[in-house]
Design goal:
Rossmann fold, 2 domains, seven-stranded parallel beta sheet, 13 helices, 7 strands
Length: 328
């Protein structure tokens, strides 16, 4: 028999959104005591996680990701789902600040009690996903959200990191033909489980269908993500809701197929180990960098590299050796 949950864990497990928001804030905190408490909470709730469809959504700027998620989220809630959205905004490289405007752009979804929207700064990290997004995702699952959407901050090589925390990866594109297709990195297309052409309404309906055909042709030239599954391409409109039910049916059917074959469990296990490795490397670097003797040497060597007197690769090897000696 499992031990009783702590008061905070019990509140979160009962779907208390305020407790969920506070817990995610602690997960994102740079204070060790906050993070330790939040990580202990995740450990306590781990048995309540894993019950959602984890959907990553990316797309070029201007494709209408937030509007699309707003419309899709409302449709899912009407179908009986509880929807959490983790929207990662780009942080300023100078100040660390971010716009965090997604909640205001999801005006319909943000008013629904069955929804939880959490904009989070990326912290300047590549990958389109904040360092703690996977932990936040687990907390959302423990709180009873059965669809968790991770919205990334654009399309590019680094954005493929979203595939490392989600079950399915949806690439959202706009009617645009060749120019739009050229702007999508090959690696992103290889990772896409579903491609959706948005804005397929009015005068753009024809161009949207042509764009879908272009992507079908382009997919023949990239390696498929799943050897026995052809990447579905659908057209839809977040403005009119046309095609959204078909899109979600496609996503849900694919998720079910992966679950039934055992591939979903294997995917999630691989992702968990990858997060362990990344977090270990990050914490090791963070702790070594706090050692005064190492910091002094590192700053001296940085100055040498900046002045062009040493190569970055050789200097990195020397820093690694210094760090090893400091740890011993």
């Amino acid at each position: 028999m499992s031990p009783p949950l702590s008061p905070s864990a019990a509140k979160l497990a009962n779907g208390d959104r305020r407790t969920l928001a506070q817990s995610i804030t602690k997960i994102e905190s740079t204070r060790p005591d906050d993070r330790a408490g939040a990580e202990a909470l995740i450990e306590e709730l781990l048995g309540l996680t894993g019950g959602s469809i984890r959907l990553g959504i990316t797309g070029t700027p201007g494709v209408g990701k937030s509007t699309f998620i707003d419309a899709l989220g409302v449709l899912l809630i009407k179908a009986g789902h509880r929807v959490a959205v983790l929207a990662v905004d780009p942080s300023s490289q100078r100040t660390g600040g971010s716009i965090l405007g997604d909640k205001t752009r999801m005006g319909n979804l943000s008013t629904r009690p069955e929804a939880f929207i959490r904009p989070s700064p990326s912290g300047g990290l590549t990958g389109g996903v904040a360092r703690r997004t996977r932990d936040a995702l687990l907390l959302c699952e423990a709180a009873g959200f059965d669809v968790v959407i991770v919205e990334t901050m654009g399309v590019g090589q680094a954005e493929t990191a979203v595939a490392e925390i989600c079950d399915l990866f949806l690439l959202l594109v706009a009617p645009g033909g060749g120019d739009e297709l050229q702007g999508i990195k090959r690696g992103v297309m290889e990772l896409a489980d579903v491609i959706a052409v948005n804005k397929a309404d009015g005068d753009l309906l024809g161009p949207a269908r042509h764009t879908a055909a272009d992507y079908r042709h382009a997919l023949h030239m990239v390696r498929p993500k799943w050897p026995d599954i052809e990447t579905p391409i659908v057209t839809c409109s977040a403005l009119t809701n046309e095609g959204l039910e078909e899109l979600w049916s496609t996503v849900a059917d694919l998720h079910r197929r992966l679950a039934d074959s055992g591939r979903l469990d294997e995917l999630r296990a691989t992702q968990a180990v990858a997060q362990l490795d990344r977090e270990f490397e990050h914490l090791l670097t963070e702790r070594v960098s706090r050692l005064p003797a190492f910091t002094k040497v590192r700053d001296q060597l940085r100055a040498e590299v900046r002045a062009g007197r040493r190569s970055p690769s050789a200097t990195a090897a020397e820093l690694a050796n210094r760090a090893w000696r400091e740890l011993h």
